Amino acid sequence: MAKVAYLANQFPSPVEPYVAEEIQELRRRGLTVIPCSARLNPAALDAELKSWASETLYLQPLRPKLLIQSAFQCLLGFPLLKDFFIERCLREASHWGGG
């Protein structure tokens, strides 16, 4: 089963209910979705949004253990991402006149 990280600036948020709807739809289609948010929403949340908050992975404040685990996962997945990084680097080099 495919695993996807859904990254939002601030989730859960009553202002952007479509994010939860999109995550639910991806899950309905069989994907494993990890809700991620750059920041914790300081607003008061209703019961449904609180349940989303409990399963959301927050990037701030920075947690060293999570950072190390994420870096390790990136290293393990590098063979899968290698072509993407090479293509991106070549594209950037040609953009700046390097090739």
What does the model show?
- This protein is α/β, with parallel strands linked by helices.
- The protein is built from four helices and three strands, in the order E-H-E-H-E-H-H.
- A three-stranded parallel beta sheet has the order 1-2-3.
What's the short story on this structure?
By secondary structure, the chain is α/β, with parallel strands linked by helices.
Helix/strand order, N-terminal first: EHEHEHH
Give Rg in angstroms.
17 Å
Helical fraction? 40-55%
Task: Tell me the number of helical segments per DSSP (H or I, 4 or more residues long).
Answer: 4
Number of strands: 3
- Described by the principal axes of the CA atoms, the overall outline is elongated
The spatial strand order of the largest sheet comes to: 1-2-3
Measured between the Cα atoms of the first and last residue, the distance is 39 Å
Structural class: alpha/beta
Mean pLDDT metric: 85
| Amount of beta strand | 15-25%
